[in-house]
Fold:
Amino acid sequence: MTTLVSASDTLTRDALTVLQPGFVGTTAPDWLLRRIGEGLSSVGLFGRNIASPGQLAALTAQLRAERDDVLVAIDEEGGDVTRLEVRSGSSFPGNYALGAVDDVDLTRAVAEELGRRLAACGVDLNWAPSADVNSNVDNPVIGVRSFGSGTDLVSRHTVAYIEGLQAVGVAACTKHFPGHGDTNVDSHHAMPRIDVDLATLHARELAPFRAAIAAGTKAVMSAHILLSALDPERPATLSPQILTGLLRQELGFEGLIVTDGMEMQAIASTYGIERGSVLAIAAGADAICVGGGLADEDTVLRLRDALVEAVRTGELPEERLADAAARVRALAAWTQAHRARGAGSGPGAAVQEGTAPGTEIGLVAARRAVAVTPGELPYTPLTSAPYVAAFTPVANIAVGDETPWGVAAELERLLPGTETGAFDDPSVDAVLAAAKERRIVAVVRDAHRHPWMTEALDALLAARPDTVVVEMGLNQAPPRGALHIATHGAARVCGRAAAETIVGI
Structure:
C-alpha cells in the first residue's frame, strides 16, 4: 500500500535522497524532473539513455537545470562493460587487460582519460572499478571485469584506477564489497555464496578494498553475496555486520555505501525490492541503486514510501536514514565543487564521437595487453579477406548483448571483404561451408568455461590447422591454432589490436 507522504517534509526528502534510480529514454521524463525537485539527489544512467556524447551532455544539463547538485551515476567500467559506447564497443580495454600489462601508470592514465570523457558529458559518479579478485576461473559474472587473480595485482591497479578517475572530479565507486571474485553464480540470477574462512577473506577478498579506502575512494558498492564466515544469514548488502561492523567500523570507510542493483534476483526474489531497500539502509547502506530493470516512477515511489513507512513504524531509525542522506549530499557537494573548478571540461565543453583526441591511450593499452603464442609452423600474416567464425556464449547481464565484440569489423577495415558468422554449438560444418577456401579466424570468449566451444575448436583445427584463434575472455585454455592471440577482453580496441596482429601490423 502506498503511504500518504508529503513531498516537502524532511523524512520524505531524505527517502528520495538515498535513491539512485534509472529511467527510460534519452531525455529526462517529466516525472524524474519533478522528483528531483522534491529531493531526489541521484540518477543512474544506462546504455538505453545514451545515443551520443553530445546528447548525453544535453541530458545531464537538463537534469542539473532542475537541481545543480544532482549526482549523475553510470556503470562505465570500460572494456566489456560500457554504457558510453554501448553500441560500438569501448575505446578503452577493461581491467583484465590492464592487469595483464601490469603498469599502474598506464591504468591510472586510462582511468583518467575515461574520467575526462565522463566529466565532459556531465557524469560525476562512476560505479567502478571492480576490485574483485577473480580467484574462481569459472566465475560467470566477474571474469575480465577483474584486474586478475592476484590480490596484490588487484590492489595496486584498483588504487591507480581510483586515482585516475578522481583526479578529474569523477567519484569512484569501488565494487563489489566484500568481493565477488570467488563465486560461480551470477547474483543477477540467484544468491552466490562464498564459504571460505575469515583468514582467507581478509587476506584475499578484503585487501583491495583496504587499499581503495586508503586511496580515498569516494564510494563503495556492496555485493549481493552471502559470506558465511561474516554473516551466515544475510547477503552483504543487507548485513549490518558487513556494512557497518566491517566496512565502517573495522575498515574505517567514511564515504558513500551504494548497493548493487536491488532488482537483481539475489535480492528481489528473496526479500523483494522494498523490503530489501529498508534492510540495506538499516544495515548501513547510504544509496539504493535501482533502474537497470525497473526504471519507472512507480518503482521510485514504492521505495520512497517503504523507507518512510519503515521509519514511522520504528523498523528503520530516522537518524540512520538522515545519516545516509547526508552522505549522499556530501558526495554531491564534492562533485559539484570539482565541476565548478573544471568548468572548461564540464557539460558545456566540446564532446566528440568515438575515439576522441587523447583517448588513443586506450588503443595503446589494448595493444600492450595482447599476448601472442605462435603455432608449430611459421605464421604468415593474412593479406586477403578471411572468414571470421565467432563462437558466441550467452552474455551476462552486466555486459549485455547489445555491445558488439570480436575482430570481424576491424579485420574488415584492414582487409575489405572479410566475412563473419556467429555460432553457438560444437558443429563446425556450417563454419567450413561458409568459409570455403578462405583462411579462418576463430574468435572465442572464455573457452575454458564452455565445453561446446572447446569441442568446436578441436574439430575446426583438425579440419583447418591454419586457423587463427583469438581468445577475448579469460586466457585459461591452452593456446592452440596457427596463431593464438589473447586480447584479455572484448572491447572494440582489443578487437583492433588483435586484427593488427593477424595482418602483421
Notes: The first strand starts at residue 19 and ends at 20.
